[in-house]
Structures are given as structure tokens and as C-alpha cells.
Amino acid sequence: MNPRKKNQLIVTAFFLFMFVFTGLMTFYVGPIMIEKRMEAEEDKILFKCQKVVDGNHIEVQLRDWEIPNPNPVIQIQIAGLNVPPLGNAEDEAVIAWASANGVSPEIAAEFGESTYKTLIAFIRKQNLLLYSENGEQAPADIEANSPMHVIVAGAHVNLKLLRSGLALHDSSRPHAYADKYANAQAEAQAGHKGLWQYLPQK
Is the pTM of this model over 0.85? Predict the structure, then answer.
């Protein structure tokens, strides 16, 4: 066989392979992968963060394939956290939080704003997994103002806020992650991170 015919056969075989491969991906493998991805997402019950209200509250919406999304937007609380209110140093809520925690209203206002901005950068418009206080995955029909543990891209939002000293652990309500939250707060306190630069050392 002369080299020219040999090259023609190689090129023909290559294009035939690509044709078969593309057909398999388009009509067989592709649909299976899409179906499995949809099933996985349905099992996870994904929500999207539509708005950050303050350092302790966000608005979420159950993910849906329809456009526009027909599901209601619901405000939830980020569980297990004690966060300075969003406002200035003259706001009554900020003054009350500062007094209760032993810092100045200026510091409370500063960290209320910092936590708020951190959440905007971290989770706004992102897909979230939500878990109730008992550690079970949140149902699709969550109730407004429910306390939730929040996961984004595998990262535990509540823990990150505690480790960075942007929030304190609210131990007044029992929950599934209480030990982890207490350890995260102890880590922030030992490192004098965030609010722990100013809070009385316990």
C-alpha cells in the first residue's frame, strides 16, 4: 500500500471514530449524565441565596428548572450564631448587643457590617445546602425564619464565621453542631481573631 492511500485510510478511520464517539456522547452517554446530575441535585434539595439581609439572616429560594423560578423566596436564620446587628453605633439594637457582650457600639457596628459584607461575597446568588438544627437536611418546604446550618460549595458557612471571629456561638439553643461551633469559637478566641480582639476574655 502506497503512503498516500495509507494516510487516507488513517484520516478516514479517525473521522469515523469521531463520528461514532460524538453520536454516543450525544444520544447515549450525555442524556444519562444529565439524568444522573438532575437526580443528584434533587436528592440534595438545593436552595439559592437570593439576598443577604444582615449577618444572621438570608433570603433563599428552592432551586427549580423553570424560568422564572415559581418557588417563594423565604427568609431564614443562620443557626447557632450570635452576630452584631447591622446598623450604626447609634442604633438601639447595636447599642444593646454591644452592652450585652462587653464591647463598644462602634466595634459592634463595625463587625455587624463586616459579617454582612462577608456573607454577600461568600454566598449571595450561590447554591446552598441547608440543614436543620438537628443536623438533618432541610426539606423543600422550609418555614420562614427557621434556623439553618448553611453549606456552600462544601464549606460550612456558620463555622467559617465563628473561626474568623465574625460571629459568636449562640449556645442558648441546642443543635447538632454545638461541639464543632464551640471548638471553632475557642480557636478564634485563642487567635484573637475578629471580635475577639475586643471582647472580654472568658
Answer: no
